[in-house]
Design a protein that fits this description.
binds manganese (II) ion; 27% helix; 23% strand; binds N-oxalylglycine; three-stranded antiparallel β-sheet; alpha+beta
Length: 295
């Protein structure tokens, strides 16, 4: 079988079939996946059985450089021995459920805010690849918002007014808005990054709004004005017609473009039910096709 796409939403998101990603090494299929990402921004693959090593190797083949300066690494070392694997699970190193007051849990449930991965780093995140290993018996969905449609549907004068604007993104900021506290040393290591408010995919020329709950302020704007603009844009971007909700099945493997989408975890009873997910994110640097060929 060969790689095929079936749309899951009118604007973005497709289910991809016909490939076992662990075995995809050929340039043509890798380029087919990149083209699918350019078109759909989120791809859903079923029944993928990655080990951590295989997931890291696939991410490198597809998109080159891996994101290792994760926010969570400031709190605790990865239990997988490589900071490129982000543990998006609600269990501790021994596999026991995290308690309600556990810092790692409290930090992790901030994924319920709309965000993009690694916008608080420079270079920013490009593709995230999330594998579902163990799922609760209740829904624990993830929602995605189409940030290209969000940009396209802005009024022309709004688009013009956003050109050249930049926002400061900090993962500490999004957590602090929920009451999470960081030590001085942690805050020092989580200073954040400056990002444009509008991004353009160099391969397609398509523009997207680049927002996240990590965005703390707009540079060169007074704080309240900038924050109000960010809130307005966030509200616009997350209107239901631009949102896809993914109901996970075990073995699902999702790839999303952090430049073209936002996402958020939906709540479930996480102190009762185990949910184990592993994510690898790549960096928005260089041309993926060229990098992947050199690997
Ligand atoms: C992530 C993330 C959401 C979820 O892995 O980056 O935000 O539903 N996950 O686990
Ligand atoms: Mn995320």
């Amino acid at each position: 079988m060969t790689l095929q796409f079936r749309k899951l939403h009118p604007h973005f998101v497709a289910e991809a079939s016909g490939v076992d990603l662990r075995r995809v090494h050929d340039t043509e299929t890798l380029e087919g996946i990149r083209a699918g990402m350019d078109e759909h921004a989120v791809l859903v693959f079923r029944d993928q059985a990655f080990s951590s090593e295989e997931q890291l190797a696939f991410a490198t083949r597809l998109d080159g450089e891996l994101h290792r300066k994760t926010g969570i690494s400031v709190l605790a070392k990865s239990r997988f021995g490589d900071e490129a694997i982000t543990d998006v699970s609600n269990v501790d190193a021994d596999g026991a459920l995290l308690q309600a007051d556990d810092r790692k849990r409290q930090y992790g449930i901030a994924n319920r805010l709309w965000h993009t991965d690694a916008s608080f780093q420079d270079p920013r995140g490009r593709y995230s690849m999330l594998a579902a290993l163990a799922l609760p018996p209740v829904a624990s969905d993830t929602e995605f918002a189409d940030m290209r449609a969000a940009y396209d549907t802005l009024a022309d004068e709004t688009k013009a007014s956003l050109q050249g604007l930049r926002a400061h993104h900090s993962i500490a900021y999004s957590r602090v808005t929920l009451g999470f506290e960081f030590s001085e040393e942690e805050s020092d290591r989580l200073k954040g990054a400056i990002q444009p408010l509008v991004l353009e995919n160099p391969r397609t020329g398509r523009r997207s709004l680049y927002l996240a709950s990590h965005a703390s302020r707009i540079l060169d704007r007074p704080v309240p004005d900038g924050r109000l603009l960010l809130r307005d844009l966030m509200e616009h971007a997350t209107q239901p017609e631009r949102v896809y909700r993914h109901s996970w099945c075990s073995g699902d493997f999702l790839i999303w473009d952090n430049r073209a989408t936002m996402h958020r975890a939906r709540p479930f009873d996480d102190t009762v039910h185990r949910r184990e997910m592993r994510r690898v994110t790549t960096l928005d640097t260089g041309d993926p096709a060229r990098i992947a060929q050199a690997v």
